[in-house]
Amino acid sequence: MSLSFQDLILTLHRYWGAQGCVILQPYDMEMGAGTFHPATVLRALGPDAWRAAYVQPCRRPTDGRYGENPNRLGHYYQYQVVLKPSPDNLQDLYLGSLAEIGIDPLKHDIRFVEDDWESPTLGAWGLGWEVWCDGMEVTQFTYFQQVGGFECRPVTGELTYGLERLAMYIQGVDNVFDLRFNDAGVTYGDVFLENEREMSAYNFEVADTDALFDLFRKAAGECERCLEAKLPIPAYEQAIKASHVFNTLQARGVISVAERQAYIGRVRDLAKAACGAWLERAAG
Amino acid sequence: MTDFLLELRSEEIPARMQARARNDLSRLFAECTEEAGLQTGPIEVFSTPRRLVLIARDVDEATAARREEVKGPRASAPPQALEGFLRKTGLTQDRLEERDGVYFAVIDRAGRPAAEILADTIKRIVADLPWPKSMRWGDGSLRWVRPLHGIVAILGEDIVPVEIDGIASGATTVGHRFHHPGPITIGGAADYLEKLQACHVIVDQEERERIIRDGAAEAAKAAGLTVVPDEGLVVENAGLTEWPVPLIGRFDADFLDVPREVIVFTMRTNQKYFACTNDEGLLAPAFVCVANIDANDGGEAIAEGNARVLAARLADARFFWEQDLKVPLEEQGKKLGGIVFHEKLGTVADKVERVAKLARWLVETGVVKADAKQVERAARLAKADLVTGMVGEFPELQGVIGGYLAEAQGEPPAIADAIRDHYKPAGQGDEVPTAPVSVAVALADKLDTICAFFGADLKPTGSKDPFALRRAAISSIETIIRNGLRLGLTKALRGALANRAGQARDADPAHRLDKTADELIDFFADRLKVQQREAGVRHDIIDAVFALGGEDDLVRLLARVAALQKFVETEDGADLLTAYKRAANILKKEKWAGTDASGGSELEPQEEALISMLDDAEPKASASIEKEDFAAAMAALATLRKPIDDFFDHVTVNDPDAAKRERRLNLLMWFRDAVNRVADFSKIEG
Q1: What is residue B386's predicted lDDT score, i.e. its pLDDT?
Q2: B312–A70 C-beta distance less than 8 A
Q3: CA atoms of B548 and B625, how far apart (whole Å)
Q4: I want to staple B339 with a disulfide (CB 3.0 to 4.6 A). Which of A97, B16, B150, B348 is the partner?
């Protein structure tokens, strides 16, 4: 039988743990992508070697579909691996992980298709690919060039697996809620369907926009206070918070196109300042 | 002489960059070897996702030895001059030759072995190949499109030694990533292609393209279908595979409810699949994907997997489509007030308002013969699809989606078509709308865009045209000409400017509007020249007609241009042009401004003939122009040819009799001005 959702995670943990990665637990804050985790953003800066792997729950309020779409979720999991400096055999290591979870590359068509990554809110970009398995994007594979506006030296290699998609592929199911979560009869839907319904309703209909605007301002202010106190980690946390509040405001449809750029710019400035403070402290 | 092989092996190179990289590789290699004086025969270049390859035939083993002579100072020159020369050449004085009191440095340059030059060439290629985007990796400082892992460099049978950032050249490469991941030793240019082919790598991109083109056609044919040819996809898939295997897959026919463009777009852009049609030419629920392996199950799992991915995408598209169908476009249109068109130009709702007004004006003034109510409705619905889920997912399909929704929601075909086509022509070679309602909305949309941006002082400058206004002007021109629209452009542009100024409650005085309108006319004139030049019209002819000024009806203007070009290419025309230039030169030389003198005594017969012909031809030409019968105007001019030639042959303009001179200069001026009323002949070359 193919891997259950939780065994997929455990298999990847074992595999990347054996490659010298520290296996971290999810960061306890709301964020839109595994990249936002300080173990990626902050550790990608500066000269020190670093290897880590972790699962990160991602919240994308605008992608919520009340649990009615078989492929879209407002909350899902990414499996994130970072290796710094990126080793010469990174592609082979990655392909080894696919073999580990049961994908035979002589039966399935694995491809590296150009996809350059950019995060305007983090002031970060890199070059790489989306990895296709039989035409499905299963991983984002990136060599970071800049984070927080700073050059990455050495370069971090980042692998982001879309866990639900990968599991759907391995298990051969067409609806994410039908995924086997474990081998004891629990499905993904049993765990998360109600979450999707309620969170979609909250994000699209209920969230108090005035309170959110206020939260955004407060997080930005708190970030600046932390920067003044030369505390890059809490400053960065507040930038993540502001970013998530902004995402929710977008889902509520209260940010116009013109304002959008200004908000993204504000978050980017906060994230950049936190990255700068982190580098300064590292240079000590 | 012997052959040289270079393989630069890296992680996957983006498909879209490979063609240019091959050209650059070939160019850099030729430049470097030529500079070094190394002779080579033909150069071939290849690419796969993981390698850039160059094979140069018949490379000389070394460059020829050369003797160079450098002339130095005179022997009698001060010692500083000699010192400087020795420093420059790096020689000592005893190595100089003295001839006729002048020092010469004679430098023998030995021939350089080819391997040495090739090693330098490789270094320069890796340093200078201009990738659109390049990157660093690991803790190195080398830049390449993706991490560079291997260099195979073999001249004849010998490795050309070179090391770049820790990567040493050798004879070892690898085969297909999955079929043959182990090392392969290459003997040289002679066995490279075959050895790789044996390891599941087809190095020659044209061969891969052929396999994809033919294989896709065959796979479709075997299923009783026809593949929709798409060379762009052929090349892209060849850039994504080292061992291409086309496979047919199917999707649920229920998805065919979704607009065809959406299905084809998803397949092409998102998945790089070829579309298939059935024997009626309709889209079939099937696709051809191109795998990169000879799968051990014959490709069944791959086809099935791809079908599932496509089904998920189409299910998503159908979800949006069904949602969108439920909301009338008119309702959607109400949300446009929330979308900023441009920060200085208000919302999309504001734009729709202006387009509707201008489109209606085009109909009411008789420029476009269409039903004004239909035009206004089409204009008001044209942008409504921008807020649909479908266009949110597939922004490239704006207009197309609106057209489908309008049709499904019961709008008349003329309106649905106008919504679909109002962005056209979107680029060179794109279809120009011809249905009247479509023409009115399409033209109004573009004129409004151009005027709105000009009005806000956001004009194209130099190579910068961020809002594609030049393209919009050319599209407008194409629409006007193709449909023979009799439009006074100045009035239309002024109207469009005033629409925007009114919305913006722009209190600026009318003279600023006039200035912008003048700039716009010049802008259109420039675009028209570009567009006509591309259509093969002589630029001097265009200038000759433009120089008359005051003409803003493009159809009339181009009719005149066409008649003029035809005329000056006849013998009568060429001859008349010569006579015109002669007359104009005399007048210029005399700085003649004209007087009242005419006629008088002792008229030569040639003078009389010319006067009588001008009396006849000038009003004829004017009347013909009035009637827009430009061929007749040219024919009227042609009647002047003989009398003007006779005049020049028999009459002296600069007669010693001042009165004769005066009246003859006036006659020439009359002739010149008469010709100029048809076109400014001074602009015409020849």
Answers
A1: 92
A2: yes
A3: 13
A4: B348
Residue type, B683: K
Give the chain B residue nearest A170 (alpha carbons).
Answer: B305
Q: How confident is the model at residue B289 (pLDDT cuts 50, 70, 90)?
A: very high
Spatial separation of the C-alpha atoms in residues B630 and B679, rounded to whole Å: 11
Do A257 and B11 count as a contact with CB atoms less than 8 A apart?
no
Q: What distance in Å separates the CA atoms of residue A142 and residue A145, rounded to the nearest whole number?
A: 9
- Chain centroid offset of residue A35 CA: 4
Nearest to A146 by CA among A31, A268, A230: A268
pLDDT tens sequence for chain A (284 residues)? 899 999 999 999 999 999 999 999 999 999 999 999 999 999 999 999 999 999 999 999 888 989 988 888 999 999 999 999 999 999 999 999 999 999 999 999 999 999 989 998 999 999 999 999 999 999 999 999 999 999 999 999 999 999 999 999 899 898 999 999 999 999 999 999 999 999 999 988 888 889 999 999 999 999 999 999 999 999 999 999 999 999 888 888 777 666 788 889 999 999 999 999 999 988 87
Mutate to test the interface with A, among B9, B18, B47, B137 (most CBs of A within 10 A): B137
Which residue, B579, B588, B601, is CA-closest to B648? B579
Other CB atoms closer than 10 Å to residue B672's CB: what's the count?
A: 21
Residues of chain B found within 8 Å of residue A105, distances taken between Cβ atoms? 177-178, 293
Q: Give dist(CA B551, CA B542) in Å, integer.
A: 12
pLDDT at B498: 86
At A132, is the secondary structure helix, strand, or coil? strand
Exposed e or buried b for every residue in B585-617, given b needs 16+ CB within 10 A?
ebbeeeebeeeebeeeeebbebbebbbebbeeb
In which residue are the tokens 């759907």 written?
A168
Round to whole Å and give the CA distance between A205 and A64.
Answer: 12
Residue B70 has a CB neighbour count (10 Å cut-off) of 14
Closest CB from B16, B139, B308 relative to A85: B139
Rounded Cα gap, residues B110 and B118, in angstroms: 17
Enumerate helices (H) and strands (E) in chain A, giving the number of each.
8, 9
Residues from chain B that touch A112, judged by Cβ atoms under 8 A, are: 11-12, 49
What band does B506 get if pLDDT is binned at 50, 70 and 90?
low
pTM score of the predicted model: 0.79
Q: Tell me if the bond preceding B328 is cis, omega within 30° of 0.
A: no
Which residues, at least 6 apart from A52, have a Cβ–Cβ distance to it below 8 Å?
A21, A22, A23, A24, A39, A40, A43, A80, A81, A82
Chain B hits for A62, Cβ within 8 Å: none
Cα–Cα distance list, B67 to A119, A190, B70, B320, B537 (Å) = 59, 87, 10, 77, 55
Q: Does the beta-carbon distance from B139 to A70 stay under 8 Å?
A: no
The answer to whether the Cβ–Cβ distance between A155 and B138 falls below 8 Å is yes
Residues of A in contact with B305 (CB under 8 A): 108-109, 133-136, 169
Give burial (CB, 10 Å; 0-12/13-18/19+) of B437.
Answer: buried
Phi then psi for residue A49, to 5 deg, are -70, 155
Look at the block and give the residue holding tokens 């303009």: B653
Q: Which pair of structure tokens corresponds to residue A71?
A: 């492929």
Q: Are B550 and B490 in contact (CB under 8 A)?
A: no
CA A88, CA A82: separation in Å to the nearest integer? 14
φ, ψ of residue B122 to 5 degrees: the values are -60, -45
- A-interface mutation test, from B9, B12, B300, most A Cβ less than 10 A away: B12
Q: Cα-Cα-Cα-Cα dihedral of B30, B31, B35, B36, to 10°?
A: -50
Closest CA in chain B for residue A44: B138
- Percent of residues, chain B, with pLDDT higher than 70: 99
User: Using the 8-state DSSP alphabet, how is residue A177 labeled?
Assistant: G
Coil, strand, or helix at residue B339?
Answer: coil
CB of B271 within 8 Å of a chain A CB? The answer is: yes
Coil, helix or strand for A160? strand
